Amino acid sequence: MLLAIDAGNTNIVFAVFDGDKIKGQWRCSTTVERTADELGVWLHHLFTLTDVPADAITGAIIATVVPAAEFSLKTLCRRYFNVEPMVVGDPEVDLDMKIIMDRPSEVGADRLVNAVAAHKIFGGPLVVLDFGTATTFDVIDGEGNYLGGVIAPGVNLSIKALHMAAAQLPMVAIEAPRSVVGKNTVEAMQSGVYWGYVAMIEGLLARIRKDQGVDNMKIVATGGLAPLFAKVMDEIEHLHSDLTMLGLLMIYRRNSNKTN
């Protein structure tokens, strides 16, 4: 079995693959002070609850955009699962993808993993739209090369910024209001964020297509809020909640086969 770990700015997601099937998946908040021992005890307990034997783990792969969390995650794999983890971004880990950027090392590991999975599943050219801590647009050409992208503040960050900066604006749930013109403060905030992001995404996708000179780019959305926005956006052709985890599985298999 493979232990796949995706450490983002907000959450760390752990998944166990038994072949192509996700046997178990769990998440915890990203806290760099959390030790490998704390993670190990927590994860072993969850393994027990879902009948996943810890000693069945034969490999591990990590993608992290939080450098301070990497040491604990590596130690977790070594100490509690007796495996040496593969880390996306290490020079020896082959993504089978050209990264056509000024500084390829600056691209977040999660964005590269998503790009690998999306191109392998859906083909290209395409844009991966990820609703995470940031809202990101990653552009991949027909050959699977990573061309670059766009980074915008995440939806939840926008809500928090409004609440923190304006004394009379509350924290609100992210959902589509009953009309674009809000009849109260909560609805007005929800409209601004929800329809504001819809307009931003539609506008950026149109500009990306124009910039690249490609009209038929596929749009693949992932992240927790993707379904909420996909239901009102015809541009989003594909939803995939496990895109990052499947990308980690693909990368692990490619590199394991090369070393065996």
Automatic annotation (TrEMBL):
The gene is coaX. The active site is at D110. Pathway: Cofactor biosynthesis; coenzyme A biosynthesis; CoA from (R)-pantothenate: step 1/5. A monovalent cation. Ammonium or potassium. PANTHER family: TYPE III PANTOTHENATE KINASE (PTHR34265). It catalyses: (R)-pantothenate + ATP = (R)-4'-phosphopantothenate + ADP + H(+). This is Type III pantothenate kinase. It is found in: Cytoplasm. Homodimer. ATP binds at D6, A7, G8, N9, T10, N11, I12, V13, T133. It is an enzyme of class 2 (transferase). Substrate binds at G108, A109, D110, R111, T185. GO terms for biological process: coenzyme A biosynthetic process.
